[in-house]
Design a protein that fits this description.
Layout (H helix, E strand, L loop, with lengths): L5 H8 L34 E4 L20 H4 L14 H6 L1 H5 L5 E4 L3 E3 L2 E2 L6 E2 L6 E7 L6 H13 L3 E6 L9 E2 L40 H4 L11 E2 L31 H4 L13 H18 L3 E4 L7 H17 L6 E4 L9 H10 L3 E2 L2 H12 L4 H8 L9 H4 L3 E2 L9 H9 L4 H17 L3 E5 L25 H4 L20 H15 L1 H5 L1 E7 L6 E7 L6 E7 L5 E6 L4 E8 L11 E6 L4 E8 L2
Parallel strand pairs: 1-2, 1-14, 2-7, 7-10, 10-11, 11-12, 13-14
Antiparallel strand pairs: 3-6, 4-5, 8-9, 15-16, 16-17, 17-21, 18-20, 19-21
Helix pairs in contact: 8-9, 11-12, 11-14, 11-15, 14-15, 15-17
């Protein structure tokens, strides 16, 4: 994606409206109303900001190499390479709390900060653990990010501002330490439980091993004590220098891993296979269950964090979560954290709730990242699909365990570090290079995330107009001046900036928009806790989506309105007969009811609004 946004920038700087969407002048946004005190806020009251610490702010250049010697393949630091450490750390993140809170953010979720294996990969394919998902020590902050004391300082600083802290945790796997003696020749192909049972070495005709082991469905510790030989599928091999690299020490026991080769993401291998070579823990083993509960319970005890996002949750057996989740919530409640937020990554790319609802029902996970919402928002805001898609997606809320109330606590997002940035999806799905329309569609998507149900989750840099060139490493740009050519050749949406510059501009139109949407949401119990009634949608093609949200506790009703089309629209729609009048919350709203139970709504191209339906209930 090259420099194509100059004309949109000129329009923005003029401070006028384009496509019917008013633009903010280049002044800092008004302060966002204060959220409720930290301890009193329920899960659905939060506004989350997700950040990769390595790519955010470099507060201490002395830790850039993590205290390691040698070159980039030893210490992992190379700010010119998109797959290596760039220098961001906890001190930098702490120093930018003013910037983050200025958007109205109430909770910060960051990628894992546990100590990682610095560099992994076959020769010529090496990359670094800057993202945090290759853990060797679950008890220590990675030295590239700082120290445990600096993490405590960050948590304390966030809490002092009334902001919550969510950690990203990994249970499915550790760093890639275990190799297989037989594996390289066949590409570490997955070997199934049927073809390679626990009872024989190397297949049904092999030597009898693990006598008396009754299979991994039996959770009795006495049963698992009989699984002493891990050579049923492959022969695990650990380099001498790494035999004791993992912490806690029990993680160095190779019998606690599946050791069946690489997952191909389907069927049995999805649960038992190595995640691209990463050592896949046998989470059916009660020793692993107890060990993980203790690890992550201790982070709650020591630091008083407020939530966990769980990586690769659907690749762990449901019985693990059925034990882990209540134990962790008990630990948090004992610490006085009554609204501890647990949400799992259940990855898929379809505009549906069924996959997440199924895994949640099977596992007992209370919440999941709302992958279905992300895909629906990408399709609808880009014009690839009409608003009917989002309406039908929202009506699936009934299938979650606990029904529509559960949907209120699902973190919603538009793009992320794995799939790519929202602006990229909008650009590619719309097929348009019109800069003004692209910005308008991106604004519309953010309005959907804040005004519809769920917990809005902003991916760092989106508020500065970052636009990725792809997924994974291509969507993990630096907020501080970058040296990565593949990042710096992109002009950012809504400004003349590039990632070669520092990008913490509170006057950026998307930053300002997020602050305005946060203020509306913080001020409105119906936007935070209101259940959804779809009132109207254009059935074919782009057009109107109208959703009424009602908070039964306060009685407040809000009508959220979106025009996904390139032309203005006006339509009379049904609302609750309890409504007695209309008042604006954000955007332009009708001056009054058109009739009892009806309002006439008018929206510009790509416009949106939230209107309070004044009522007696």
């Amino acid at each position: 994606m090259k420099r194509i946004f100059a004309k949109a920038t000129a329009v923005l700087c003029a401070g006028t409206a384009f496509l019917g969407v008013p633009l903010a002048a280049e002044t800092p946004p008004a302060p966002v109303p204060a959220a409720a005190p930290l301890a009193e806020r329920a899960l659905e009251d939060e506004i989350i900001y997700f950040v990769l610490p390595d790519r955010f702010a470099n507060g201490d250049p002395a830790n850039d190499k993590g205290g390691l010697k040698g070159g980039p393949f030893q210490h992992g630091f190379d700010p010119t390479h998109k797959g290596f450490y760039h220098g961001g750390d906890l001190k930098g993140l702490t120093a930018k709390l003013d910037y983050i809170q200025g958007m109205g953010v109430t909770a910060i979720w960051f990628a894992p900060i546990f100590k990682n294996k610095p560099v992994q990969g076959m020769p010529g394919q090496e990359s670094a653990g800057y993202h945090g998902y290759w853990v060797t020590d679950f008890t220590q902050v990675d030295p590239h990010f700082g120290t445990n004391a600096e993490f405590k300082a960050f948590v304390d600083a966030a809490h002092a501002r009334g902001m919550k802290v969510y950690m990203d945790i990994i249970i499915n796997h550790t760093a890639d330490v275990i190799g297989y003696a037989e594996g390289e020749a066949n590409g570490y192909r997955y070997r199934s439980k049927g073809e390679y049972p626990f009872s024989r070495r190397g297949g049904p005709k092999g030597k009898a091993i693990n006598e008396g082991f009754a299979g991994d469905a039996d959770p009795d510790p006495a049963n698992w004590a009989k699984l002493t030989d891990p050579t049923f599928a492959y022969t695990p091999v650990v380099p001498e220098a790494e035999k004791n690299i993992k912490v806690p020490a029990w993680l160095n026991d190779v019998t606690l891993y599946h050791n069946r080769g690489n997952s191909h993401w389907v069927g049995e291998s999805s649960l038992y296979g190595d995640f691209s070579g990463l050592d896949d823990l046998a989470t059916e083993n009660p020793r692993v269950v107890a060990g993980m509960i203790e690890i992550f319970g201790q982070w709650i005890d020591d630091y008083g964090i407020d939530g966990y996002r769980i990586d690769t949750a659907k690749h762990v057996n449901p019985e693990f979560w059925q034990a882990f989740t209540p134990a962790i919530l008990k630990r948090a409640h004992a610490k006085g954290i009554k609204h501890f937020h647990i949400f799992g990554e259940i990855a898929y790319e379809e505009p549906t709730a069924t996959i997440a609802a199924q895994v949640m029902a099977q596992s007992g996970l209370p919440y999941a990242l709302d992958m279905g919402f992300a895909k629906a928002a990408q399709l609808v805001a880009s014009g690839k699909a009409g608003p009917r898609l989002m309406a039908e997606f929202l009506e699936q809320d009934a299938i979650y365990p606990g029904g529509p109330k559960t949907a209120l606590g699902l973190p919603t997002f538009l793009g992320n570090h794995d799939f790519g940035r929202f602006s990229m999806f909008v650009r590619d799905m719309s097929g348009s290079k019109d800069e003004a329309k692209l910005l308008a569609r991106v604004r519309l998507g953010h309005a959907m995330m804040f005004l519809l149900r769920g917990v809005p989750t902003v991916y760092y840099g989106d508020e500065q107009g970052f636009i990725s060139d792809g997924n994974d490493q291509l969507a993990r740009e630096d907020m501080f001046p970058s040296k990565v050519a593949a990042y710096n050749d992109n002009n950012l949406i809504g400004s003349n900036a590039t990632t070669a510059e520092d990008n913490f501009n509170p006057a950026h139109p998307l930053y300002r928009l997020i602050a305005e949407l946060s203020a509306a949401r913080t001020a409105s119990p119906a936007l935070r806790r209101g259940l959804t009634t779809v009132r109207a949608f254009t059935e074919t093609g782009p057009g109107l989506l109208a959703v009424e949200r009602h908070d039964p506790e306060t009685g407040q009703r809000v009508l959220a309105l979106f025009n996904t089309g390139e032309s203005p629209l006006s339509q009379t729609i049904e609302v609750s007969y309890a409504a007695r009048g209309v008042a604006p919350l954000i955007g332009t709203c009708p001056a009054a009811l058109a009739a009892p139970g009806a309002v006439t709504v008018t929206l510009p191209a790509f416009g949106f609004a939230a209107c309070i339906l004044e009522s007696d209930d």
